[in-house]
Amino acid sequence: MLQTSDTELKKICSVIDERKVIIPFSQNSFVCKSLNTDKNIAYVDLSNYFEIEEYSLADRIVSVQCGIKIVELQKFLVSKGLWLPVNCCDEQTSLLDLILTGDADPYENVNGGLRRHLLGLSFILPNGQIAKSGGKVVKNVSGYDLTRFLLGSYGYFALPVKAQLRLYDLPPKTLSIGIDSPNFAQLLNIANKIISTRLSLLSLDIVDRKLMSSESIERGVKSDRLRLMVTLFGDESQISKNTTEFRNICKENNLSISNILDRDEQERELRQLTAISSPKNKFAQTNHKEICFIDILCDRQKCGALLQLPDLHSKAFTFRPISSKLRVYLNSSSEQESALDSLNKYSIDEQAPLVVAYNNNEYIRKVARLGNRNKLMEETIFDLKQRLKEKLDPDCLFNPFVDL
User: How many CB atoms lie within 10 A of CB 256?
Assistant: First the structure.
């Protein structure tokens, strides 16, 4: 444990001393009706805690305060010829937002996303003390890796305040490609071939075109067009070779491709895709209509069958083939409950275990495991989380609106 003399961290610790429930997001970041009625809540703001404390060009390591905006961090790194392979949905997204949500943006294809780039954390515990996990080198952990455990925990156990990140050389060139088709199975087949061909990928997503506009989903615009969005990276020769292979795969399926060569246009497409797949996405935040979503982790080849379930059929969705992450958008909490029942029945009937995550009126984030799973393993993981919560936060002051 370390005590801090840092002014900003002292402010946060003083808030913790008030014994209020700590929510490590801004008040407008997440919609949860149960939060709106609880007056004993303190929203922690790290926006003034944004310094780059240390970096090494040779070691490809940077130590930063977690309030730093991703856009500002990338600007600094690009000026040094380096890069952190993560994207964000807007200019206000901070490193803390990505760590808390474990948000896997389209760049997760590069070495597994933030989970692989995060080397260490300093974090504030519910007792106001500061602890550390991980470090500044890749292999620096013996025993359980608490850094990875805190990633995606929504501040349930502790509040990350500083991070050590692994960096990479800035890609010399990128190329974004779009393929349109009304047939999900066809696009998934192409995605499978792309994955097996081992092209140099930054992103690979299948998305409903109607999700590319905020107005579309709110107005219920119909669209039978799906798009496979791909971003390649490398030098000129790598891009040329990969594009040729890509064209050959599409030609076999009688589909044409559209290249997006302009860097700014590529960035707009990726940011839009990131906004769709982010837990903080604007579709779930709209004040005009209740939009719910369910995140589903499933076998890649079973995704098509899930999308044919009556409660999911025709709903807007995104699918990330490499990580097998499916997000389905629904129009109300009642639709969400019905879809969860259908998924559970499918999981049991087909003996296909599923992990789902969603938000509702009670939780900012709730994770459920459906179907007949290894009960011993599930109990072990659940018990571990419960013991850690009881050890670090016996009074349940840190974000109790999460069920992991």
Answer: 9
Domains of the chain: 7-169 (3.30.465.10), 173-366 (3.40.462.10)
Rounded-to-integer distance, Cα 199 and Cα 203, Å: 11
Helix (H) or strand (E) segment spanning residue 229:
strand 226-234
Q: Are 177 and 255 in contact (CB under 8 A)?
A: no
Mean pLDDT (the chain) is: 83
CA distance 239 to 179: 17
Worst-scoring range by mean pLDDT, 248-262, 305-319, 375-389? 375-389
Query: To the nearest 10°, the Cα dihedral for 25, 87, 206, 261?
Result: 150
Distance CA 47, CA 69 (A): 8
pTM to 2 decimals?
0.88
Dihedral angle computed from the Cα positions of residues 46, 47, 51 and 56, in that order, rounded to the nearest 10 degrees: 80
Look at residue 220 and tell me whether its pLDDT is greater than 50: no
Please say if the pLDDT value at position 215 is more than 50: no
Whole-angstrom distance, CA of residue 202 vs CA of residue 246:
14
Count of beta carbons in the 10 Å neighbourhood of residue 24 = 27
Of the pLDDT bands very low, low, confident and very high (cuts 50, 70, 90), residue 331 is confident
What distance lies between CA 64 and its chain's CA centroid? 20
